[in-house]
Design brief:
Elements (H helix, E strand, L loop, with lengths): L2 H8 L7 H17 L2 E2 L5 E2 L3 H29 L9 H5 L3
Antiparallel strand pairs: 1-2
Length: 94
């Protein structure tokens, strides 16, 4: 019994050689990219056509939200409110 046979006896499904291992990994990557749903992208398929549009639209909405939040922060900063380190606040502190 060779080393590869021993390994498969201990761990069924283990690749017998490097080429078999590459085949297994390639099959997993293809499955992950084209068939498996991903929670990080709203349970869409990785590289599938219609789901790519969903992911692109989600990214566009997220970017628009980031821009709105940044604008709100800029407006709040320009609203004339004293900053915590402004001289008016520091002078009135006992």
């Amino acid at each position: 019994m060779g080393c590869a046979e021993c390994l498969r006896a201990i761990r069924p499904g283990a690749p017998g050689n490097a080429d078999h291992g590459r085949h297994i990994i390639g099959a997993y990557v293809r499955h992950s990219n084209t068939e498996r749903i991903h929670s990080a992208i709203n349970y869409a398929l990785g590289l599938a056509g219609p789901h790519l549009a969903i992911v692109t639209e989600r990214d566009r909405k997220l970017e628009a939200t980031r821009e709105r939040r940044a604008e709100c922060r800029r407006e709040a900063g320009n609203a004339g409110l004293p900053r915590a380190s402004s001289p008016e606040l520091l002078d009135n502190h006992p």
